[in-house]
UniProtKB/TrEMBL annotation:
This is ABC transporter ATP-binding protein. GO terms for cellular component: plasma membrane. It comes from Roseibium aggregatum. GO terms for biological process: peptide transport; transmembrane transport. Keywords: ATP-binding, Cell membrane, Membrane, Nucleotide-binding, Transport.
Length: 597
């Protein structure tokens, strides 16, 4: 990036001024105000964090500033948004197109709803650069490659040729961040920009935003439910509830002495790494047999090339993984994006081709089989996916979506079906009046709660939770985690809890497995992993966790150097298998790895 000198007087300059902003949405019962009289100023180089529960108006505020409201269902009902003195509310759509992406850019919460599925990553990045900068196609391609390298996406030249569906959730979010930063905007609005990212990549992205501010004086509005990120990044914090500001102040005093009861509740719900230190994790269920047994699981994806599109190499997503989970036990599975965590979950649901052995409650799963027996198998194992919007049919009401598993398996119909669905809605913190709505009418966190209710419908023995609370604000996250724990105690459920949030994993897990490049490099009890991590990679994950205390803010995030090794290997190429040594009842990789030195 070309660096400029930012003077102290320039940093005092107000770049964005929002006054009495009011946003209204149309409902069957009439117009509803979702942002009510919002006012704030944003200085050059300042980071303003907006916090609050799902549905509090955070994302609607961002969409209003960007003039991206889905009119006529939603509209700005009053107020002004001044960017360098120009009122964005008065601009027509043609003028706003020149502003978006150039002067003001936005990173969205769900990348698959923002990336064009039929265009390559490279083309989408090039178009963003060419639209706002007077550069040639070659210069735009160079800039696109530089940005993918800046967000530490492995094999950037190959990623430029891929389509969004070929990337993991974390990879797609990094592409969105690269696209937003490509034109060096004056204001960057980041709506949950690190929700889908593991802690090490999150640390690097946050450092990248810091570097951009330092070099160019970019102002940042950071919308997040992660109070650790708020403590690390914010100069000032706005707390919203029901469309209004309930507290506004510098980050230090707000964390130390929150004045509003709502803010106090939010901070009290924040999971803190080390909060479980010294506490043993006991399993109530004493059943001898394992609820889930996985042996030598391998997942590989073919890559084709050449004129005849023959298989030329394979992605070794999961390589010889083995573990078991007992009834009433939670195994936390952690690791960076692309390490194979989600591929394990999909293999357990028979959604991708796999080799090895999978048993649930003593019943074997056959790879690739889709029969009545496979349907019976799935009654015992259910999954909550990472992206709630992609896993809910937009044409169905959420009530029908939650009740669909009961209908498919012939477990309920008529009044009984409605009563069971209503009970599931109440258990995940949703009202029964919302059952008639469609997925697009809910916030991201509310959609994830719907997915959890759907997974609980069949009363399974095993639940795979793939980033199941990553889209939830901290207070709702705490409620959902309490619910999962309550259900586990009542029903002896076994959980495979896939997450990048180390504090949450520490809170919910009995045992933890750490993955790197498709293999498990360290496993152990919660206390062993979090209080005495042995593998350098595990220690690196711990060090990257943001601390929800502004007084302990780090001047510089410790981020890894160099590219992540590729999981792609040629046909017939020998792949080194991880060797394990016993360390008590823990296992870890026996060889040293220079990548973590």
């Amino acid at each position: 990036m070309q660096q400029t000198d930012v003077s102290a007087s320039q940093l005092e300059e107000i770049v964005l001024s929002v006054r009495d902003l009011k946003t209204e949405v149309a409902t069957p019962d009439g117009s509803k105000t979702v942002v009510d009289g919002l006012s704030f100023d944003l200085k050059r180089g300042e980071t303003l964090c907006i916090a609050g529960e799902s549905g509090s108006g955070k994302s609607m505020t961002a969409l209003s500033i960007m003039r991206l409201l889905p009119e006529p269902m939603a509209r700005i009902g009053g107020g002004s948004v001044l960017l360098d003195g120009r009122d964005l509310c008065q601009l027509d759509e043609t003028a706003m197109r020149s502003v978006r992406g150039g002067d003001i850019a936005m990173i969205f919460q769900e990348p698959m709803t923002s990336l064009n599925p039929v265009l390559t990553i490279g083309r989408q990045l090039r178009e963003a650069v060419i639209a706002h900068q007077s550069v040639s196609r070659r210069e735009a391609e160079k800039r696109a490659l530089e940005m993918l390298e800046a967000v530490r996406l492995s094999e950037p030249p190959r990623r430029l040729k891929q389509y969004p569906h070929e990337l993991s959730g974390g990879m797609r979010q990094r592409v969105m961040i690269a696209m937003a930063l490509a034109c060096n905007p004056k204001v960057l609005i980041a709506d949950e920009p690190t929700t889908a990212l593991d802690v090490t990549i999150q640390a690097q992205i946050l450092q990248l935003i810091r570097d951009l501010q330092r070099d160019f004086g970019t102002a940042v509005i950071l919308i997040t439910h992660d109070m650790g990120v708020v403590a690390e990044m914010a100069d000032r914090v706005i707390v919203m509830n029901q469309g209004q500001i309930v507290e506004d102040g510098p980050v230090g005093p707000l964390f130390q002495t929150p004045g509003d009861p709502y803010t106090q509740k939010l901070l009290a719900a924040v999971p803190k790494l080390g909060a479980m230190s010294g506490k043993d994790s006991e399993i109530r269920e004493k059943a001898a047999g394992a609820a889930l047994e996985v042996n030598d699981l391998t997942v590989r994806f073919d890559l084709r090339g050449g004129l005849l599109q023959r298989v030329v190499s394979r992605v070794h997503a999961v390589e010889g993984v083995s573990f078991d989970i007992r009834p009433g036990e939670t195994l936390g599975l952690v690791g960076e994006s692309g390490c194979g965590k989600s591929s394990i979950g999909k293999a357990l649901m028979n959604l991708v081709p796999w080799d090895g052995s999978i048993r649930v409650a003593g019943q074997h799963l056959m790879s690739g089989r889709n029969s009545a027996a496979d349907r019976a198998f799935r009654r015992n194992i259910q999954m909550v996916f990472q992206d709630p919007y992609a896993s809910l049919d937009p044409r169905m009401t959420v009530g029908d979506l939650v009740g669909e598993p009961l209908v498919i398996h012939g477990l309920a119909k008529g009044t009984e079906l409605q009563d069971r669905v209503a009970g599931l809605f109440r258990r995940v913190g949703l009202s029964t009046e919302q059952m008639s709505r469609h997925p697009h009418e809910f916030s991201g966190g509310q959609r994830q709660r719907i997915c959890i209710a759907r997974a609980l419908a069949l009363s399974p023995k095993v639940i795979i939770a793939d980033e199941s609370v990553s889209a939830l604000d901290v207070s709702v996250q705490a409620q959902v985690l309490d619910l999962l724990k309550e259900l586990q105690d009542e029903m002896g459920l076994a959980y495979l809890f896939i997450s990048h949030d180390m504090a949450v994993v520490e809170q919910v897990s009995h045992r933890v497995a750490v993955m790197y490049l498709g293999q498990i490099v360290e496993t152990g009890t919660r206390r062993q992993i979090f209080e005495n991590p042995c593998h350098p990679y595990t220690r690196r994950l711990m060090e990257a966790v943001p601390i929800p205390d502004p007084s302990r803010r780090r001047d510089m995030f410790q981020v890894p150097v160099g590219d992540v090794p590729s999981p792609i290997h040629g046909i017939g190429e020998t792949v080194e298998r991880v060797r394990y040594d016993d360390i008590g009842d823990r296992h870890m990789v026996a060889r040293s790895d220079e990548a973590f030195a």
